């Protein structure tokens, strides 16, 4: 017999739909949220507010509340656009403090098996931005997955006739990582992306 009330089962089912949440994590989260009523109410209110206030920038497709802080920043280098799959990827790049250009979020990757082609992504908007002039380089920072690689190759073919330089971010070993623990794909990428020492 299942002792969980129907509402608790429904809550756990919804929690399991979140990325990285399995059955056990869903049980712990549901238990916590039901026990800590104030926390649960604050979470639900914050979630509703985020849905009401946050949207995609119509130019770069970063998540923004009102105007886009990147597109509206006059200090950004407008000759370089870094293309990422999702806003979270741009957040990670921005956290390095190394990139001072603009972003373009594809909102996914090409995945023909799931029916995701260029039309389902923001590819046309990227081409429009490049065609408008002023962009000298497009950095492709899609993930090192089959879909990410296919998307990067597709974009290179699409942008090459526009006369803009395209580059791919280097992938390699993490800082502090040991070579013997690296998978073969990462190690191969590290060798290909090697650079000279000064």
From TrEMBL:
Question: Can you tell which superkingdom this protein's organism belongs to?
Answer: Bacteria
**Stretches assigned to the Toprim domain:** 79-174
Pfam families reported in the protein's UniProt record: RecR_C, RecR_HhH, Toprim_4
Q: Which SUPFAM superfamilies does this UniProt record tie to the protein?
A: Recombination protein RecR (SSF111304)
Q: Which InterPro entries match?
A: DNA_Rcmb_RecR, Rcmb_RecR, TOPRIM_dom, TOPRIM_RecR
> Which keywords label this protein?
DNA damage, DNA recombination, DNA repair, Metal-binding, Zinc, Zinc-finger
One GO MF annotation is: DNA binding
Q: Which GO terms describe its biological process?
A: DNA recombination; DNA repair
**Which family is this sequence assigned to?**
Belongs to the RecR family.
Annotated function: May play a role in DNA repair. It seems to be involved in an RecBC-independent recombinational process of DNA repair. It may act with RecF and RecO.
Record-given protein name: Recombination protein RecR
List the lineage, top down: Bacteria, Pseudomonadati, Acidobacteriota, Thermoanaerobaculia, Thermoanaerobaculales
